[in-house]
């Protein structure tokens, strides 16, 4: 019993509301059914995992596994630090959600990203799910005031990071200027460089930073969407790509005040936007305009906002899904396309020029390949029609909407969901976050919360699918033909 009590607490379930207690008989019956269901699901998941593992050398150009001591709810790429012949060095941001025996932390790591076609198949085949990756080294620890539910970096300068915890405030960190801390029981928390205020209730997950201007967006349990500008609090060099050098730590890029207080200044909202009828679960900026943004919530609505015309919805899409919406992303290449993911296990793609039909959401496509609630969606920075989705079923799916309805001359797997062309099945439990790498094409970091399967901890994986999977078919066949000719020539020698 004591050993059980020492296990890390399970993190909160995305989009789930607590249910009333049932009587003991019903509870026992339900517990037996759930236990049986879990065993059968676990057996099926194990078989799928074993099958996936046998295909690793074929499917991946590079894959590394990093076991985490504590569960993590968020992972993000930071700036690239240096380039070399066979690998690039880059920052990686990871959250640690502890049981209270040590503080919750925001971990700043350094990752060596192996370049395409460098990792040998032999190395990839030695994949070990019990290992801590030699490519990931902890660089700095920030002791976070409360659990880190969400991390988002400022695209204009990824050294500036925003975090959500179980409070109404958004915390802004200049991660290179923050002192390195030792996370031991009783240690005082690190002090954020800025505190963004404006929510009236906890804002736990919905968080975004604009690629166009130093604006921050958040949603919370108070059913509002809040917008801030941190323009007045960052140095000009911090958001100017021509002068910003992201390879060195340097000094603080947050302007220092004369205040003797160790906590950074509070920043009030630029606008508070009211239109949702339940918790706001996720938010996203239009990639080309910081005053246009969207939000999704537990009211099953997708709302588009325009800060230039007021604080009421510009467009409200009722019943965008059949259940709570968990995530949203705006296409960085085509500002008309928006993705949403839901507890109904599906992803919808909307065109903002034609969002509704008969008063309810009318998506261009519905992508149905997950068997549990979708937790995260993100468009690829490398190809405008490609996106990823992760879910509570432990899968991270890669889709291409241009493949919907198309068949190659070599035929397709008729049982595969339309648009799905790759499935990362390396996680054993729900994949709570992932992030495409903007510096290394087709490279991904993903993290799963493994509490339900192992009783604690999480798994971080960095991976890149083989380019034979996503390159044009004719190009791939031509390369394989060349390779075949080379092999035949060598065999004659």
Structural account:
The chain has 493 residues and is an alpha+beta fold. The protein is 15% helix and 36% strand. The strands form 8 sheets. It has a 5-stranded mixed β-sheet, with no helix packed on it. It has a 4-stranded antiparallel β-sheet with strand order 1-31-30-29. Strands 2-3-4-5 form a 4-stranded antiparallel β-sheet, with no helix packed on it. The N and C termini lie far apart (68 Å). InterPro entries: Histone-bd_RBBP4-like_N, WD40/YVTN_repeat-like_dom_sf, WD40_repeat_dom_sf, WD40_rpt, WD_repeat_RBAP46/RBAP48/MSI1.
Tertiary shape: globular
User: What structural class do you assign from the helix and strand content?
Assistant: alpha+beta
Could you describe the largest sheet, including whether it forms a barrel?
A: 5 strands, mixed
What strand order characterises the main sheet? 6-7-8-9-13
Distance between the ends: 68 Å
> How much helical structure, as a percent, in the residues?
10-25%
* Structure annotation, total helices: 7
Tell me what portion of residues adopts beta-strand conformation. 35-45%
| Mean of residue pLDDT values | 85
